[in-house]
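User: I've been trying to design a sequence by hand for this structure and keep getting stuck. Would you show me what you'd pick, starting by listing the structure so we're on the same page?

Assistant: Good idea, let's start from the same input. This is the structure you sent:
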């Protein structure tokens, strides 16, 4: 794959159509019930959501609707999130979240799939590409470079986990992820806390355990550099993970890196709601389907 960085600046006006309704299905993943949806036909795409979220982060923004026109799309609630089971033991997370993807592929008899993950899901993609590269056609890491051993053991993670266990959201995490000039006010923080506590599908102790399981998601630079699966990284210029994504590009020069101007991690300018995300995913997958150009010979 030719290494390059693509910088996207096009601003688009976009109104998402109402998301279609999908049937909830469940899988027993080693004793943990996982809720998933399976829709569309064609090559399989697996979508992994971010931390503290669920599969509705893909359906509510029309991503599943769009991709299901041409692909078989599987999205699921990571263990500890949404309608999946919610263990409170950190040992139930980390690598087990990655292996859940393989368990789902096995259960659905899918030999290989495209894998796309946002934030926490992107860290899962990074680990999967080192654990089971044979199961993936392509990998797309959205706003997440994977966890280096240093990052996986960052003391900040315990602080954020404790805040979630106590307050339902992490105030320090919200501040860290928001772009400069767009930090939430105290009133907005309190509104988020109230909304979180009203969400009966959100288990703060399980989500905190998921964060504490990050230690089991570590991937070394050597492992990342050795990945041969065609991979794209995509991140907004306002995203707190931008530098990490650029460093990942240096570690794996063959990776395609797309920067979206004016896009942040979450919020009103969050990347999951930007229509360019799906457009770039489609373009990348189409590029991998093209046969290699015939080499010319001199006589």
């Amino acid at each position: 794959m030719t290494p390059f960085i693509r910088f996207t600046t096009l601003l688009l006006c976009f109104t998402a159509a109402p998301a279609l309704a999908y049937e909830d299905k469940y899988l027993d993943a080693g004793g943990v019930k996982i809720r998933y949806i399976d829709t569309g036909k064609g090559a399989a795409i697996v979508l992994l959501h971010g931390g503290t979220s669920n599969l509705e982060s893909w359906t509510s923004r029309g991503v599943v609707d769009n991709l299901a026109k041409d692909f078989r799309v599987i999205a699921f609630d990571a263990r500890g999130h949404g309608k999946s089971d919610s263990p409170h033991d950190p040992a139930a997370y980390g690598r087990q979240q990655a292996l859940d993807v393989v368990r789902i592929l096995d259960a659905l008899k899918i030999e290989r799939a495209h894998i796309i993950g946002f934030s926490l899901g992107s860290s899962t993609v990074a680990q999967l590409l080192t654990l089971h590269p044979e199961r993936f056609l392509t990998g797309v890491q959205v706003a997440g470079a994977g966890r280096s051993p240093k990052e996986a053991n960052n003391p900040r993670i315990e602080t954020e986990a404790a805040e979630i266990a106590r307050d339902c959201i992490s105030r320090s995490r919200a501040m860290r992820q928001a772009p400069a000039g767009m930090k939430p006010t105290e009133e907005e923080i309190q509104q988020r806390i109230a909304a979180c506590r009203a969400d009966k599908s959100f288990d703060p102790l399980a989500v905190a355990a998921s964060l504490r399981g990050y230690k089991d998601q570590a991937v070394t630079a050597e492992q990342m550099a050795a990945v041969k699966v065609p991979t794209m990284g995509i991140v907004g210029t306002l995203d707190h993970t931008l530098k990490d994504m650029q460093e990942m590009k240096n570690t794996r020069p063959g990776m395609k890196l797309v920067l979206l101007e004016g896009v942040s991690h979450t919020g009103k300018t969050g990347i999951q709601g930007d229509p360019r995300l799906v457009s770039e995913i489609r373009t990348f997958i189409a590029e991998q389907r093209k046969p290699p150009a015939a080499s010319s010979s001199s006589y």
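That's my pick for every position. To get oriented when you compare it with your attempt: Confidence is low (pLDDT under 50) at residues 1-18, 294-299. The two ends are 27 Å apart (CA to CA).
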